[in-house]
């Protein structure tokens, strides 16, 4: 049982480049979400989904897109990377009303 | 909308001393509450959770937390801190009433332990 798998672990982008952070879970969780973690800010919710085909914005959605075509996958897209998006990104999933299971994170640097 | 505050950005305690980390939340309906811990360079680990019932909940590593609805608080406690408890601690609140709930985190409290 792999849990929540995030790829890549590290990424360096130039300003304006696009990329997709991958997240997959094998626990049949309805709920999936993306957070970014910055020093002194805790984890801030970017986008979340309560099932395939359903997504909603979190606290800091600007500059990020998501889709949920399957229960297992919830990719996060950066359309035009900016230095302000330098952060550690965590994907998390759960059964509704249960605690979150986190992936190991992706450390993104935008130069 | 939910929100979480953790008034203490950084706390330093001596090994063996007791610990209390504060967490206050704002949410219009019945919340469910969590504490997570993150060791340096690591991911997040669930310490404990409150959904309903007994307002004093026990977690892993000897931690406990008490839900006080009147104070909108969910403070984390440990009677005797170990050096390995040095980490970042995050309080989180989720909505309990609907399917479209989301989990919001506080800014975290960094704990240092003096040997």
Layout of secondary structure:
The complex is a heterodimer of chains A (111) and B (115).
Chain A (H helix, E strand, L loop, with lengths): L3 E4 L2 E4 L5 E7 L5 E8 L3 E10 L2 E4 L6 E3 L9 E3 L8 E8 L6 E2 L3 E5 L1
Parallel strand pairs in A: 2-11
Antiparallel strand pairs in A: 1-3, 3-8, 4-5, 4-9, 5-6, 7-8, 9-10, 9-11
Chain B lengths: L2 E3 L4 E5 L4 E3 L2 E3 L4 E8 L5 E7 L5 E3 L5 E5 L4 E6 L8 E9 L7 E3 L3 E6 L1
Parallel strand pairs in B: 2-12
Antiparallel strand pairs in B: 1-4, 3-9, 5-6, 5-10, 7-8, 8-9, 10-11, 10-12
Outline the structure in words.
- The complex is a heterodimer of chains A (111) and B (115).
- Chain A is mainly β and 111 residues long.
- Chain A contains no helices and 11 strands.
- In chain A, the strands form 2 sheets. In chain A, strands 2, 4, 5, 6, 9, 10 and 11 form a 7-stranded mixed sheet that branches. A 4-stranded antiparallel sheet of chain A has the order 1-3-8-7, with no helix packed on it.
- The mean pLDDT of chain A is 94.
- Chain B has 115 residues and is mainly β.
- Helices cover 0% and strands 53% of the residues of chain B.
- Chain B contains no helices and 12 strands.
- The interface between A and B is medium-sized, with 24 and 23 residues.
Rg of chain A (C-alpha, Å): 13 Å
Number of strands of chain A: 11
The number of helices of chain B is: 0
Instruction: For the record, give the distance between the C-alpha atoms at the N and C termini of chain B, rounded to a whole number.
Output: 41 Å
How much strand content do the residues of chain A show?
over 45%
Instruction: Tell me which oligomeric state these chains represent.
Output: heterodimer
Q: What integer is the average pLDDT of chain A?
A: 94
Helix content of chain A: under 10%
Secondary-structure content class of chain B: mainly beta
Low-confidence stretches of chain A: none
Q: Based on helices, strands and strand pairing, what is the structural class of chain A?
A: mainly beta
